Amino acid sequence: MFPYILLEIRRTLRDPSYLIFGAGMPVMMYLLFTNLGGGDEHDWAAASMVGMAAYGALGSSMAIGTGIASDKSLGWLRQLRITPLSPGRAVAGRAVSGSVTVLPAVAAVLLAGALVNGVRLDVWQWAALVLLLWAGSLPFTLLGIGNGYRLTPQGTGVVNVACLTGFAVIGGLWFPIELFPGWLRAAGELSPAYGFSGLGRSVVAGHFPAAGYIAVLGVWLVLFGGYSVISYRRSARSV
Known about the structure:
Layout: H1 2-13, H2 16-37, H3 42-62, H4 64-74, H5 76-80, H6 87-98, H7 102-115, H8 123-135, H9 138-150, H10 153-170, H11 182-188, H12 192-205, H13 211-235
C-alpha cells in the first residue's frame, strides 16, 4: 500500500492550484470575518482563526472526492482493481495521501492569525493546533472519498459544497454556536464539524480536548469510513 500512497501524493502535488486555492480561500474569509467582527480583539481573532482553519481543513480534505470521481470516469479505478489492494486498504491509502492537502490550508490560516491579527499562543499550542486539525480532518476525507466513488464528478462537487456549507454553519465554524436557538445548538453539538473545531478551541483555551469532542469525531469517523468502503465496492458495478 505504501507505493500506492506515494503515487497518490505525487499526483496531488502536481496540481499547485489545488493547494493554492484550498489554502487561499479560508485565509481571505478569516481576514474578512475578523475585520468585520472586531479583529483587534484577541479572543475573537483566536476563536475565528480556529474555526476558519477547521473550515479550510474540512474543504481541502473533502475536495479529494472530486479527483476520485474524475479518476473513475477516466478508467483509473478499473486499473486499480486489478491490484492486490483490498477495498479497505485502497480507501485508507487514498485517505492518507489526501491528508497532504490539509496541512497548507491549516498552516495558512494560523500564519494569518499570528502575523496579521496578532494572535499569541505558546509554541506547544501552535504545534498542537496543526497536529489536531490535521488528524481530526480524517472523517471528512473519508466522506469526500465516499462521495467520489459513488457520484459523478459534477455530482461530487455539488454534494461536497453542500456538505461543506452545512457543516460550517451548523458546526459553528463561521458563527458562534451559542447564538443558535436551543434545538439547533443541540443538533450542532452532535455534528462532526463542531467536534472537529472543539479540538482547536480546547488547545487555544490551554487544556486537553474534552472527551465529548473526541467521541463525536470517533463516531463520525466510523460512519464515514464505512460509507467510503461501501461506495468503493459499489463503484465496481459501474467501473
